[in-house]
Amino acid sequence: MIHKQVLNSDRVRRPPTGGWSWIDRRFVREFAPMKVALWAEIRRLHEVERLSQAAIARRLHCSHRTVRKALSLSSPPTPTRGPSESILDPYWAQIDTLVAKYSDLSAVRVLEEISRGEDGYRGSVYQVRRYLHQVRPARGRVYQEVLYEPGDAMQVDWGDCGRLEIGQTVRRVSVYVAVLCYSRLCYIEFSLSQRNADFYRAVVHAMDFFQGSPRKIIFDNLKAAVLNGSGRYACLHPEFLALCGHFCMEPIACAARDPESKGIVEGGVRYVKRSALAGRSEELATWEDYRRLGPTWRDEVANVRLHAATHERPIDRFQKERDQLRPLPAMPFDTDEILSAGVTSHARVHYDGNRYSVLPALVRKTVTLRANATQLRIIDQGQEVTMHHRCYEKGQLVVHPDHRLAAVTMRRRRQAGQRETEFDALGPAARQFHLKLLSVPVKATVHLRRLLGLVRLYGRKEVLTAVSLALEYQTYDAAYVEALVLQQRRRRDLPSPTPLRPKRGELIEDIHLDEPDPARYDRLFGSSEDQEPQP
Predict the structure, then answer these.
(1) Residue 326, exposed/middle/buried by CB under 10 A (0-12, 13-18, 19+)?
(2) Confidence (pTM)
(3) In angstroms, rounded to a whole number, what is the distance separating the alpha carbons of residues 202 and 154?
């Protein structure tokens, strides 16, 4: 039994009690694998120091058989291991059948299947798992390094940088990273959104920074670039195709869930998070801090470091790539976000969670919005009518002072029109008096407002009677009409009611009273025509 253990084990273990017998030591010497160090030393002593085999055995305290065996080997000895018996050996055929039928079966499920019955497997799952690793093919992907020529390609991607409070709103901060595949020169730009226009704008800014465009642009399944599908079957966004056509770039979409296909920019995004953002939570308190960090870190750290893959600084390696980039077109690419919006009854348009004011004349019309990173322009029939600074908070109302003044002016005009309509509805005499007011050099709305006040105070009948007399006397003035009303009331011995005026004159128009009945005064104070004189 001891001889089999020596032959089938990697190392010889000392028995628990007693020692090795002479026959055991003989089997160990003859069948145990020789170490390479011993083989090398024996050859050196024999070839260099010219010692005999017996002298070598005495110096190294080994058997002369070992010396003779080492000198007979022309190459270093390799450890050999004979086949070992395992408790799992009888179940190999059953496991092979299960794996052939169910290739994804787990080691636990295989253990359940081979453990059934009285003759089932009684060992641990670790031996099952080790055997499955041997019989199943490797599942890992095999990657091939891609070498890019100068000016060949640029990889782009977004990275998430956390959250930032802007006013009362919490917004997500993203970083756009573009890397030239040959020189590893990078461009970064922080953004508060990943809308289509933000992506297109960042691509254009990157090529402005590189002072040229590469032949290819490599990206993943961005919504701004891919409508549906992925990889070679991707259906690209028309606006993104227009951008690629403008700069003569070939768009290459990566397969779904395959970040390794654009590993250069993936490493760039990780580098930004670990180097530019890590440990700067106190420094990056406002949006302006992010905007200042981007160019500073890009020019002073990222592009002047010794790159681990190229062993060169990106800014130095870029000198070989600069001339291979395609010159930028003379006409810039329009990256503004353009959309249509309806103007509400309050003269507002909605964009990105906020409301922006417009001229009151555009109420209930459809206008065009052009938005960039800092401005929102409102266009009506091809003409720019309003420009607002873009607000990145949510639920805010941005009002231009001129729009507020125009709304107040239009409201006053509308109130003046309501007064004219209300006064003309009193009768033919009122309409004629209104026309006469328009023919004289006075402000008709002031007189109409005063006349309507007289109607509310004295009643429609008395005011129309006075208006008729004023037309007869060809005197077109509200004060003259009021004098006629008071004259008529004095003739009838009626008191003049005291008008109630609020402390704020602008509240007069908001007060609505029922049309007064002068007969109430007659019943209150009495009338000489209705009552007999007291004795």
Answers:
(1) middle
(2) 0.61
(3) 13
Q: Which DSSP symbol is given to 273?
A: I
What one-character-per-residue DSSP string does 419-439 give?
A: HHHHHHTT-HHHHHHHHHHHH
Residue 5 CA to residue 12 CA, distance in Å, equals 8
For residue 225, give the nearest of 203, 210, 192 by alpha carbon: 203
Q: How far apart are CA 133 and CA 135, in angstroms?
A: 6
Crossing angle (nearest 10°) for helices 64-72 and 36-47: 90
- Mean pLDDT across the stretch 174-200? 96
Q: Please name each of the domains of the chain with its CATH number.
A: 2-72 (no CATH), 153-324 (3.30.420.10), 345-399 (no CATH), 416-525 (no CATH)
* Closest residue by Cα to residue 241 from 227, 255, 254, 230: 227
The confidence score (pLDDT) of residue 15 equals 43
pLDDT confidence tier of residue 404, bands split at 50, 70 and 90: confident
Number of helices and strands in the chain (H, E): 19, 14
pLDDT given for residue 419 in this prediction = 79
Burial of 184 (0-12, 13-18, 19+ CB in 10 A): buried
42-56, 107-121, 423-437: segment of lowest average pLDDT: 423-437
